[in-house]
Amino acid sequence: MAKLERLEIIVRKYKVWRKANPDRHILHCAMQENLSSAIMVAAGAVDVYGKIHNHQRRVGRSVLNEFGVILSHAEAEFSKAQSFDEIFAIVSKYRFRKIGKLTVYDTSIRIGEYLKFYPTKVYLHAGTDVGARYIFGPLKGRNLIEVDEFPPVIRNLNLTPGEIEDILCIYKDELKHLKFGIYILECTNLL
Fold it and tell me: How far apart, in whole angstroms, are the C-alpha atoms of residue 134 and residue 123?
């Protein structure tokens, strides 16, 4: 099976999985009655049942709650935000030692969902960084990738930046086995 076909299968598999498994934590944040509640729910990484998202379990409830209190003091800043990038910058500004890049991104996604602002770039953290390296090679300390930097074989699959981020993280092992980065370099006619 050709590598492009395998990539398309990964994308189809992801879309079926995501449709059957919407992120309950994002949905719970989006349903909050006000921004203050949305900030606390986003930072606390909890769903409607109070269960912490598996990405943030190691951070712990008390640290996440502390993060929520700190971010709640920035409510006015969030209410003035005009893009996901601004939300991400605000969350990043208030992060402290126990709050990593993945928690910053996830919190920003949840607040962004409440405010209806979505990523226009692919943010790199933990697993997405690994998946992106299988496509681009060394990333030299980059924190994000513009969608138009991805090869056409990925851009042409009509994915949002958030979906690309998910795929890079969730399917990083499959991307590794595709050796897709090497494939893209070898097939310059696709670029």
Answer: 15
Q: Does residue 60 come out as left (phi exceeding 0), alpha (psi in the -120 to 50 range) or beta?
A: left
Structural domain total, the chain: 2
State pTM to two decimals. 0.89
Q: How many Cα atoms are found within 13 Å in the side-chain-facing hemisphere of 23? A: 20
SS3 46: strand
Residue 43 counted as domain residue: yes
Other CB atoms within a 10 A radius of the CB of residue 2 amount to 8
Residue with tokens 């992801």, as numbered in its chain: 14
Using CB atoms within 10 Å of the CB of residue 74, give its burial: 0 to 12 exposed, 13 to 18 middle, 19+ buried.
middle
Task: Burial-class residue 73 by CB neighbours within 10 Å (0-12, 13-18, 19+).
Answer: exposed
Of 85, 115, 145, which residue constitutes the final position of a domain?
Answer: 115
Average pLDDT by stretches of 10, the chain with 191 residues: 76 91 96 98 97 95 98 98 98 96 97 98 92 88 92 84 94 79 44 36
- State which residues form the domain around 179: 3-20+121-190
Question: How far is residue 158 from each of residues 41, 153, 162, 183, measured CA to CA in Å?
Answer: 30, 10, 12, 21
